[in-house]
Design brief:
By secondary structure, this protein is an alpha+beta fold. It has 13 helices and 7 strands. It folds into 2 domains: about 1-110, no CATH class; about 115-295, 3-Layer(aba) Sandwich (YojJ-like (1). It has helices at about 1-15, 20-40, 45-65, 70-90, 90-100, 115-135, 150-155, 165-170, 210-225, 250-265, 270, 275-280, 285-295; strands at about 140-145, 160-165, 185, 190-195, 225-230, 240, 245-250. Helix 6 crosses helix 8 and helix 6 (about 115-135) packs antiparallel against helix 10 (about 250-265).
Length: about 300
């Protein structure tokens, strides 16, 4: 009991030594850790980060078990890994430093948030446009960005910043328009790119009746968590690709319901809170996997 009392008194004394500067120090470190976690989650570099973490654990274990040669080699690999990190994360680091050097420092502390009204309008206008495009058998390809940023794809097309409008979409995908062959990319309920090129799917088991537009849509959904909506130029059929799986022959009502389920989750108000955002970083991809199993294999 005396030892417990002594320990409690020591803890109280240590706590009393904490100053406002210590709190600021902890807050800065917590913010930097949070931004790094967001960076990993919103890019395709998560596997690289996990690989680096495994190497660090291996270095520690090799030191504990006195594996001197293994420890030496892994330590050198980790040192050179710093250079590799700079190369791999160069676009993200450059964007971060540009934000720090700009006058709008608020952008550094901000995260991408979807405005519910804009996303609701985007879905409504997309369904309206797709119903018309399906009837006229006009090919269309739209990518709704979620957590994984699609900046590389946007650079291959024409950058835009406009609300989603049915008439605008029909004009973009008109078969004589200059941007009709590429994809329209939607971020936070707004069109940010048109005429964009997407990576083709590497799945060799895809049905042979799927054209390049469908293969590109499936490829984008394989490599990112985006939701891709497609209209076939040959049949006018509406399809949606999520997690590398394709749901085909959708009615406009089904398309709207699917887009709302994927892009406007019911718990968005809970996730908008600070604790919700932090917990979201550690969520598994169960929802993405679930939506993939509900779609038709192609």
């Amino acid at each position: 009991m005396d030892a417990l009392v002594t320990a409690l008194r020591g803890a109280v004394v240590d706590f009393s030594l904490i100053t406002i500067f210590d709190i600021i120090d902890i807050a800065i470190i917590a913010f930097l850790v949070y931004k790094v976690m967001v960076l990993i989650r919103t890019t395709n570099s998560g596997k690289v980060a996990r690989g680096i973490l495994l190497i660090m654990v291996a270095v520690w274990l090799s030191g504990v078990f006195n594996l001197y040669t293994v420890n030496f080699l892994l330590s050198r690999l980790l040192e050179w890994g710093v250079v590799a990190i700079v190369v791999l994360f160069q676009p993200e680091l450059r964007k971060f430093l540009e934000q720090v050097g700009s006058s709008k420092l608020g952008h550094v502390f901000s995260t991408h948030q979807t405005i519910p009204d804009e996303m609701d309008n985007a879905i409504t206008q997309t369904v309206k446009a797709y119903a018309s495009l399906s009837e006229s058998k006009t090919g269309a390809l739209m990518v709704f960005e979620r957590d994984n940023m699609l900046n590389d794809a946007i650079r291959t097309g024409t950058a835009l910043d406009t609300v989603v409008n049915a008439e605008l979409l029909k004009n973009i995908f008109w078969n004589k328009a200059p941007l009709h062959d590429g994809a329209v990319i939607v971020r936070n309920g707004r069109i940010v790119g048109a005429g964009c090129m997407l990576p083709m799917s590497g799945n060799v088991n895809l049905s042979r009746d799927l054209g390049m537009r469908h293969r590109a849509g499936i490829g984008a959904s394989e490599q990112t968590d985006a939701v891709v909506a497609i209209v076939s130029e040959e049949t006018g059929s509406i399809s949606v690709a999520v997690g590398g799986m394709l749901k085909r022959h959708l009615a406009p009502e089904t398309l709207e319901r699917l887009l709302r389920n994927e892009l406007m989750p019911q718990k968005e108000t809970e996730e908008s809170l600070p604790l919700g955002k932090l917990s979201g970083l550690f969520k598994s991809r169960k929802e993405g996997k679930k939506s993939g199993t509900e779609t038709d294999k192609v």
